[in-house]
UniProtKB/TrEMBL annotation:
<keyword id="KW-1133">Transmembrane helix</keyword>
<feature type="transmembrane region" description="Helical">
    <location>
        <begin position="220"/>
        <end position="239"/>
    </location>
</feature>
<feature type="transmembrane region" description="Helical">
    <location>
        <begin position="151"/>
        <end position="175"/>
    </location>
</feature>
<dbReference type="InterPro" id="IPR005240">
    <property type="entry name" value="DUF389"/>
</dbReference>
<feature type="transmembrane region" description="Helical">
    <location>
        <begin position="274"/>
        <end position="298"/>
    </location>
</feature>
<protein>
    <submittedName>
        <fullName>TIGR00341 family protein</fullName>
    </submittedName>
</protein>
<feature type="transmembrane region" description="Helical">
    <location>
        <begin position="125"/>
        <end position="145"/>
    </location>
</feature>
<keyword id="KW-0472">Membrane</keyword>
<dbReference type="Pfam" id="PF04087">
    <property type="entry name" value="DUF389"/>
</dbReference>
<keyword id="KW-0812">Transmembrane</keyword>
<feature type="transmembrane region" description="Helical">
    <location>
        <begin position="187"/>
        <end position="208"/>
    </location>
</feature>
<feature type="transmembrane region" description="Helical">
    <location>
        <begin position="246"/>
        <end position="268"/>
    </location>
</feature>
<feature type="transmembrane region" description="Helical">
    <location>
        <begin position="319"/>
        <end position="337"/>
    </location>
</feature>
């Protein structure tokens, strides 16, 4: 059972915001009153309830100075946190003095706020991201040139392209144009670096075009569309459940990194036709991953919460989804007639 600790700082003008919380979904709550009349509330809950609990207080308190909600990961507690099963309508855990306000919504994922912060960290265009992209490209190229799948998998674990692609899906789902721009910037930077580095390796290293690890990235079929969709669903679903980025990265990199590196290697060595095949495979995976990622997020109830955010999503998201669908149809047509 994954736990979260929600810290709520309520201003003196609105000190009882915490009474709006659905106590049936709270493991334990502590309230400390400050000298100025404000309160510091700490709530221990399961991760599935963290989003609804934060939403219950943020809607009423975010317009007040001094209001703040902080979400922390609770690695463990002593004594062990256990939610008792109730056989009647009485909540299993109910601190005295605070009435329940109705049943909160349980979602089988981390909160949108937590997703957003995780993605912001993963799409940060820093020297670490650039270095990881360069290292994963070198490892992938070495593995394919030596026809060694184990080395290629090592490049997948580094997973530098995971963050920008998840960021694209999340930005499209929420209609967040700032997140979209940052994700695109990081993704294009990563793709450009990996591509140019691969071309350089193809120019200066002997490349055997018939190596199976390379040649397999030049053949595109409808099965690859299924793989791209599976990678998108698995990657985004794992991300929203808080699973390790390295684990997710293996599935994502299967679809993205090897064909990108193969494209550069073939282009550097003058094998234009094979390079085009690898590029088609890469673009097919990118389109499928993002479209599947958006659908997965929507299926998990990842939607804007405020009226303004919903308006932006309505103005932006449908068009973005249509673009991805059109691109998928174009890729399917190219594969069919190729």
């Amino acid at each position: 059972m994954a736990l979260r600790l929600i810290q709520i700082y309520t201003p003196a003008e609105k000190p009882d915001l915490h009474k709006q919380l659905d106590l049936e979904n709270i493991i334990e709550m502590w309230v400390t009153e400050q000298q100025d009349g404000s309160k510091h509330v700490r709530v221990l809950c399961e991760v599935e309830y963290s989003e609804s609990l934060m939403q219950q207080v943020s809607e009423s308190g975010e317009n007040y100075d001094g209001f703040r909600v902080i979400l922390l990961s609770a690695e463990a507690t002593i004594p062990k946190a256990e939610v008792e099963e109730s056989t009647d309508d009485t909540p299993a855990i109910r601190p005295s003095g605070y009435p329940a306000v109705g049943e909160g919504e349980k979602v089988h994922r981390i909160s949108i706020v937590e997703m957003y912060e995780d993605v912001k960290e993963m799409i940060d265009l820093s020297w670490v991201y650039v270095t990881l992209t360069a290292m994963s490209t070198l490892v992938a190229a070495t593995g394919m040139l030596r026809d060694n799948p184990a080395i290629v998998i090592g490049a997948m674990v580094i997973a530098p392209l995971l963050g920008p692609n998840v960021g694209l899906s999340l930005a499209t789902t929420l209609g967040d144009q700032n997140l979209l721009k940052q994700s695109l910037k990081s993704l294009l930077t990563g793709f450009s670096l990996a591509f140019l580095l691969s071309v350089g390796l193809g120019l200066f290293l002997p490349v055997n075009a018939e190596v199976p690890e390379l040649l397999s990235r030049t053949e595109v079929s409808f099965a690859d569309i299924a793989l791209g969709i599976a990678a998108g669903v698995a990657g985004v679903l794992s991300f929203t459940r808080g699973i390790s980025a390295a684990v997710i990265g293996v599935m994502v990199a299967v679809a993205l990194l090897p064909p990108l590196v193969a494209t550069g290697l073939y282009l550097g060595t003058g094998e234009t036709e094979l390079a085009l095949g690898a590029a088609l495979l890469m673009f097919t995976y990118v389109v499928c991953f993002n479209l599947a990622g958006i659908i997965t997020l929507l299926a998990q109830g990842v939607t804007p919460k405020t009226w303004r955010e919903k308006r932006e999503q309505t103005r932006f998201s449908p068009y973005a989804i249509i673009v991805w669908v059109i691109l998928l149809l174009i890729m399917g047509a190219i594969i069919y007639f190729r």
